[in-house]
Automatic annotation (TrEMBL):
Lineage: Eukaryota, Metazoa, Ecdysozoa, Arthropoda, Hexapoda
UniProt family annotation: Belongs to the BLOC1S1 family.
InterPro entries, per the entry: BLOC1S1 (IPR009395)
Species, as recorded: Nezara viridula
One cellular component (GO) term of this entry: BLOC-1 complex
Annotated protein name in UniProt: Biogenesis of lysosome-related organelles complex 1 subunit 1
GO BP of this protein: endosomal transport
Superkingdom of origin organism: Eukaryota
Length: 125
């Protein structure tokens, strides 16, 4: 009777150990699943942040390139406007020179006409 109680006790203890071992394995598996689910949830946010950062970097690069192209175009336009302004100044200078020559020629013409009239009115004796 004592030996049967001892065997029954050992059998119960063994059954409890097996049950406890199964529950421990289930708890480990559940903890592992929970950890994996948490990591996956966090990774989704990190992956989204990474994709956003990658898109921002691409857009910043494109913006920089557009700004550089704009600066080049602006410099070209400034050069063209400066050349045009210089050409206008030269035309203005030529026009001023031509007006001065024309005025001088008018003065010379008037002087010659006056001299001609004077010599016609008072012929040399």
């Amino acid at each position: 009777m004592l030996t049967s109680l001892l065997k029954e006790h050992h059998a119960n203890q063994l059954a409890r150990k097996e049950t406890q071992e199964e529950k421990r394995k289930e708890a480990i598996a559940a903890a592992s699943d929970l950890t994996q689910a948490l990591v996956d949830h966090l990774n989704v946010g990190v992956a989204q942040a990474y994709l956003n950062q990658k898109r921002l970097d691409a857009e910043a690069k494109q913006l920089h390139q557009n700004a550089t192209n704009f600066a080049k175009n602006t410099q070209q336009w400034l050069s063209l406007v400066e050349g045009f302004s210089s050409a206008l100044k030269e035309i203005g200078d030529v026009e001023n020179w031509a007006q001065m020559i024309e005025n001088d020629m008018k003065t010379v013409t008037c002087a010659l006409e006056y001299a001609y009239k004077v010599t016609q009115e008072n012929p040399p004796s």
